[in-house]
């Protein structure tokens, strides 16, 4: 059924802006707080991965969200957000994978949001309201 207010392009734009802005805030925080990168480097060293991979956080939390927000290769941006979140869960949140908060919510709600919305952008693309629509 086509409702008068149904608009797939606006829905995709809303999704892109939501996930893009929210994860970009994490990236901006890391830019202005370089100690965050040291923390990520330590986590990588603890699992015997090269510490240089810590710089990938800028790709996943700055470049990818900008791609998503602007609609420039947003499918690739969504995949980068997905991959960045998989790393974040694996490195910093493994112990919370099956945990709940004191209020009954899932302990990794934010990470699940980024994981699944990054995947949704990958599958849906940017839509009509983008610099490079697909």
Explain what the structure shows.
This protein is mainly alpha-helical. It has one domain. Helix content is 65%, strand content 0%. The protein has five helices and no strands. Helix 4 runs antiparallel to helix 5. It starts with 7 loop residues before the first helix and ends in a 10-residue tail after the last helix. 25% of the residues are buried.
The residue ranges in which pLDDT falls below 50 over 5 or more consecutive positions are none
Q: How much of the residues is beta strand, in percent?
A: under 5%
Largest sheet: none
Oligomeric form of this entry?
single chain
Mean pLDDT: 95
Order of helices and strands: HHHHH
What count of helical segments does DSSP give? Answer: 5
First and last CA, distance: 24 Å
Summed up, the domain count is 1
Radius of gyration: 16 Å
How many β-strands, per DSSP?
0
The chain-level structural class is mainly alpha
> Helicity level, as a percent range?
55-70%
Q: Which term fits the overall shape?
A: globular
């Amino acid at each position: 059924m086509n409702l008068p207010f149904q608009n797939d392009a606006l829905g995709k734009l809303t999704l892109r802006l939501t996930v893009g802005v929210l994860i970009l805030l994490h990236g901006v925080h890391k830019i202005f707080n370089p100690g965050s990168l040291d923390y990520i480097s330590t986590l990588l060293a603890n699992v015997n991965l090269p510490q240089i991979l810590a710089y990938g956080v800028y790709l996943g939390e700055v470049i990818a969200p900008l791609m998503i927000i602007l609609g420039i290769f947003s499918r690739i941006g969504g995949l980068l957000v997905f991959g960045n979140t998989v790393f974040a869960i694996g490195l910093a949140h493994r112990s919370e994978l099956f945990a709940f908060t004191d209020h009954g919510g899932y302990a990794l709600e934010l990470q699940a949001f980024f994981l699944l919305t990054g995947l949704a952008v990958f599958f849906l693309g940017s839509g009509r309201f983008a610099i490079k629509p697909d």
